[in-house]
UniProtKB/TrEMBL annotation:
Species this chain originates from: Bradyrhizobium jicamae
Stated name of the protein: Diguanylate cyclase
Domain EAL span(s) in chain numbering: 1-250
Included stretch of the parent chain: 632 to 881 of 888
Source superkingdom: Bacteria
Length: 250
């Protein structure tokens, strides 16, 4: 496969980079997290979105190596940020099922010297559906390292509120499809309210994804969300820009 060969070459030759999207604490208005988003500079295709190459990386098993590169790079970068800022890393279901995931995470933490409490892994519901018991074992292994776990894209998959009760998450990220509708659709607002209520009981952060307008920000804030991420504040930006932004104290 041509794409597979290109991905291998990118790994070997530094063709990947991480951009970071700020996450804003809604109570203090301070950036207290950044999500690492993988970018691939392809010589012919230009910037290729992870949505287009992660599936191929998963099929070919290359996701293991790419994922390890992402973890190491994100931890090393976050170690340069102010200590109140966490870094969030997306983990695909294939990576999550690897028995060595927690070892790889521990290695990335060790190597970078990053405080484990400053690393958050984002997983999707897909990892929970496949094998509940195994997922719980892995989640507990990861949490034993002291890192945080976020449930990403909540509301897009099977989305059972039971997942929130059964699994030990630190954060629920409410999918941007709900945020998009929240100012004009009362059922989106009701769903957010229900998630916020469960999350608050269990001390979880609730992040509204895809906040693009001031009105959306105010609405999710009134519904009790505690963090937001979206173009209203900033899209994903290169590491140097984020470093400067964080250093400037905003
Ligand atoms: O900006 P955006 O196009 O980055 O992201 C598209 C999709 O790719 C999102 O679903 C996001 O979670 C996923 N993604 C971004 N970076 C990574 C990564 O490092 N690893 C994995 N597995 N998925 C990622
Ligand atoms: O699946 P995940 O939530 O990890 O993916 C993050 C994706 O959401 C990335 O593709 C990122 O570029 C995109 N994104 C981030 N903020 C916004 C936003 O405010 N609006 C829209 N439409 N997309 C966003
Ligand atoms: Mn994500
Ligand atoms: Na998401």
């Amino acid at each position: 496969r041509e794409l597979e060969a290109d991905l291998r070459a990118a790994l070997a030759e530094g063709g990947f980079e991480l951009h970071y999207q700020p996450q804003v604490d809604l109570r203090s208005d301070v950036v207290n997290g950044c999500e690492a988003l993988l970018r691939w500079r392809h010589q012919v295709r230009g910037m290729v979105s992870p949505a287009d190459f992660v599936p191929v990386a998963e099929e070919t098993g290359l996701i293991e190596e790419i994922g390890q590169w992402v973890l190491r790079t994100a931890c090393a970068e976050a170690a340069t940020w102010p200590s109140h800022v966490r870094v969030a890393v997306n983990v695909s279901p294939i990576q999550f099922r690897s028995e060595t995931l927690s070892l790889k995470v521990a290695a990335a933490l060790n190597e970078s010297g990053l405080d484990p409490r400053r690393l958050e892994l984002e997983i999707t519901e897909a990892v929970l559906i496949a094998d509940d018991d195994a997922a719980l074992v892995t989640l507990n292994q990861l949490r034993a390292l002291g890192i945080h776990i976020a449930l990403d894209d909540f509301g897009t998959g099977y989305s059972s509120l039971q997942y929130l009760q059964r699994f030990p998450f630190d954060k629920i990220k409410i999918d941007r499809s709900f945020v998009k509708e929240v100012t004009r659709n009362s059922s989106s607002a009701s769903i957010i309210r229900a998630v916020v209520s469960i999350a608050a009981d269990r001390n979880m952060i609730t992040t509204a994804e895809g906040v693009e307008t001031l009105q959306q920000r105010e609405t999710v804030q009134n519904l009790g969300c505690t963090q937001m991420q979206g173009y209203l504040f900033s899209g994903a930006r290169p590491a140097q820009e984020i470093r400067a932004l964080l250093a400037s104290g905003k």
